[in-house]
Amino acid sequence: MTVAPSQKDDAGEARPLPPGYVRLTIDGIEVEAPKGELLIRTAERMGITIPRFCDHPLLDPAGACRQCLVEVEMGGRPMPKPQASCTMTVADGMVVKTQQTSPVADKAQQGVMELLLINHPLDCPICDKGGECPLQNQALKHGRAESRFRDTKRTFAKPVPISSQVLLDRERCVLCQRCTRFSKQIAGDPFIELLERGALQQIGTGEQQPFQSYFSGNTIQICPVGALTSAAYRFRSRPFDLVSTPGQCEHCASGCEIRNDWRRGKVTRRLAGDDPEVNEEWICDKGRFAFRYATAGDRITRPLVRENGELREASWTEALQAAAKGLAEARDAGGVGVLPGGRLTVEDAYSYSKFARIALRTNDIDFRARPHSDEELRFLESAVVGTTPGTGVTYRDLESAPAVLCVTFEPEEESPIVFLRLRKAARQGKTKVFHLGPRTSPGVEKTTVIVHNGGPVSTGELVPCTPGGEAAALRSLPSDVEESLRQPGAVLVVGERAAEVPGLYSEILRAAQRTGARVAWIPRRAGERGAIEAGALPTLLPGGRPVADAAARAEIEQTWGVGSGALPATAGRDLTGILAATAAGELSGLVVGGVDPNDLPDPALAERALRRAGFVVSLELRASAVTEHADVVLPIAPSVEKSGSYLNWEGRRREFRTTIEGTGALPDCRVLDTLAVEMDADLFTQTPAAAAAELDRIGPNTGERLPGPDEPAATAPVPGPGQAVLATWRQLLDNGSMQDEEPNLAGTARRTVAVLSPRTAQRIELGHAQRIEVRTAKGSIVLPVELAEMPDDVVWLPTDSGTSRVHRALGAGHGALVDITATTPMSPAAGNGHGTTHLNGGRA
């Protein structure tokens, strides 16, 4: 859009319009605007603010509140009454007068405001929205000083819990429909709806249908009045009592911009930030509400040293000296493995990488605290490390792609903002979204079938396959999917679960070469992408330099100021190799950075390694299973108490500064730097800024990329009598410790059930009210059953929800063979809808 005092050239002739533009006049100013643009958008780009409630730039127009009325003239003839500028598009020759130049528009807006306030309770002193309420602000600016309404206001019982974390005050609602439109259009969760008619019309949910959505908190933020409030924040504070600090979400690899609002040294609430390139104006409920873990009662605030078999509090000096002495002895005896975990900032991951190579003289470091493989490592080396938004796939690429195929990736559960972008692309009709997997989960359904007012429209499909057979299925895709991927701009999205399927990463690269589709790798944790660049892998140095490359080692040695040949030249062990070597007595010590053994593919192996290790140092925020075996525990700062950056799945750097100052909590990089000094080594990572600056100086690897994996595609296992193939992935809201202290959030988690096909249920003679027992030699899980259309002889379990702790109970993963039988609950605990877990025949 352009604005100019004159649209005529030097000869007095009207200047030609650019293609696709129209010329109109708003408040006496001639403007050029693209065809199809809403009047309210054109005006606000001119700096003219038209009051509104229902309008939102990311929602379809509704014209529900009528607050944005303006005077419009077309072809020299004024329209008979003011028009809603949020639903009318610009037209050539249109003349528009807003409330700034038109008494008619101003009077209409005042009248609408008077009607909106008739039944509004005017309870601003106690309303959570008071101080940041658009209704409050616009009533003062565009409303009348007095009301002609003298009757009794309408009242409702309040609040109504439409979910465990969203409360509704119906008399405050102005029926703008922002919440219902967001739920239907953006999230695809149409549980909240307009009910009744006329004066009784109100927002609500159906009976026995709570607002079960991973994105429900966004309706609270975009509500222009105080009708929707958070159960966790309600009556806790007023906006003018809070200090706001920009931040980055630490929960997944989406990289969302957020805002931390805090007072008295504690974060009180989180809101979505505005970043059009990443999360637009949305965040998931996990990112919005799961922040109280940082102030949980079991947080470790002082170092702990084990003495006479018991941990006791110690000074930092004593703890660091004990840790340095123990690690030095373990290093010289058999070596020390380093397990940083996947939730670290880039700066902290870099410090672990440097600490391992300089202080411990080892390449035995691996951040992948989850199922992993050598094939995945080669894939990361060849196709992921070093990619940036300029060289790799971005959110905009997903939105504009003609086709996207998700392989072993459940977007709604593993990267919610990617899910929203895929749904947006599908809803706009630009993108066909395909999923290669065992069943039509809610996320799959909402990206492949878009429900419009005219009915459902198919925008993609599920390519069903048996777990473990994804590589073979990718090699022989249906012809329509294959042709869609051959279109320019198509994208193959692969998740971390691919590490459990032999040959799948290799087949992903072959499919990309065959079709021309670009590849995007999207892990689940926020720190995984940055840990690759920081060199927290057994085969990579910082910047993606191969450990085996002598020139690359020499370059890092020079930057770090260590002698030639000081860095170990052979590739280290991966996480499973480190644990196996420790359990076998080949490694003498471990440094663990906030890793939960239950997340690992073999928790029993992890516990054996922790018991066998001669010396264990744990850097963690709260007590865990590692704490029980640690010789020294060093407390570290949560994300709100330190600065740093994450790399999201795009490779986009997401920097944040400290929100809560002065707590005394130290980031991992500072703790490791001081520990290294005690071991006569210098890391120079005293602050996140110092660590980031050094990593920037190192820069990316300028040499050739390592070759990718080329493994044969595995076929799905064939179950025998009484067996099934296990499918599993983590749900967004599950047993994760970062969701602790949030009972309202936990109330919206999806039910913990086993999912199988009707034919499989019939085969095991599953009767009414019976449950399914999924068993391996290590233990079993008993859960209620949900039937769905999926391949036969397959059973799906959530990886870590409720009592379904797959790795802990079964010692198995995605694509494994398990025994299944129908069973009847034997105790009240088994009948509570959550199931039971048995380990080695006993109750866990």
List keywords for this structure.
43 strands; seven-stranded mixed sheet; nine-stranded mixed sheet; 844 residues; globular; alpha+beta
Task: Tell me what you see in this structure.
With 844 residues, the protein is of the alpha+beta class. The strands form 11 sheets. Strands 37-34-38-33-41-35-36-42-43 form a 9-stranded mixed beta sheet. Strand 21 (449-452) and strand 22 form a beta hairpin. Helix 8 (346-358) packs parallel to helix 17, helix 8 packs parallel to helix 21 (668-678) and helix 19 (575-583) crosses helix 20. The model is unreliable at 1-5 and 827-833 (pLDDT under 50).
Number of strands: 43
SS content category: alpha+beta
Strand order of the largest sheet: 37-34-38-33-41-35-36-42-43
Rg (CA only): 29 Å
Distance between the termini: 65 Å
What's the tally of helices?
Answer: 25
Percent range for β-strand residues:
15-25%
Low-pLDDT segments, ≥5 res: 1-5, 827-833
- Identify the overall geometry: globular
Q: Which secondary structure elements does this structure contain, and how are they paired or packed?
A:
Layout: E1 2-3, E2 21-26, E3 29-34, H1 39-45, E4 69-74, E5 77-78, E6 83-84, E7 95-97, H2 103-118, H3 134-142, E8 160-161, E9 166-168, H4 178-187, E10 192-195, E11 202-205, H5 217-222, E12 228-230, E13 243-248, E14 257-263, E15 266-272, H6 285-289, E16 304-307, E17 310-313, H7 316-333, E18 336-339, H8 346-358, H9 374-384, H10 395-400, E19 403-407, H11 411-414, H12 416-427, E20 432-437, H13 442-448, E21 449-452, E22 455-458, E23 460-464, H14 470-475, H15 479-485, E24 491-495, H16 504-515, E25 518-522, H17 528-534, E26 540-541, E27 545-546, H18 550-560, H19 575-583, E28 589-592, H20 603-612, E29 615-620, E30 632-635, E31 644-647, E32 653-656, H21 668-678, H22 688-698, E33 723-729, H23 743-746, E34 754-756, H24 758-763, E35 771-776, E36 779-783, E37 785-787, E38 794-798, E39 800-801, E40 804-805, H25 806-810, E41 817-823, E42 836-839, E43 842-843
Parallel strand pairs: 2-7, 18-28, 19-20, 19-24, 20-23, 24-25, 28-29, 29-30, 33-38, 34-37
Antiparallel strand pairs: 1-3, 2-3, 4-5, 4-6, 4-7, 8-9, 9-12, 10-11, 13-14, 14-15, 16-17, 16-30, 21-22, 26-27, 31-32, 33-41, 34-38, 35-36, 35-41, 36-42, 39-40, 42-43
Helix pairs in contact: 7-21, 8-17, 8-21, 8-22, 12-13, 19-20
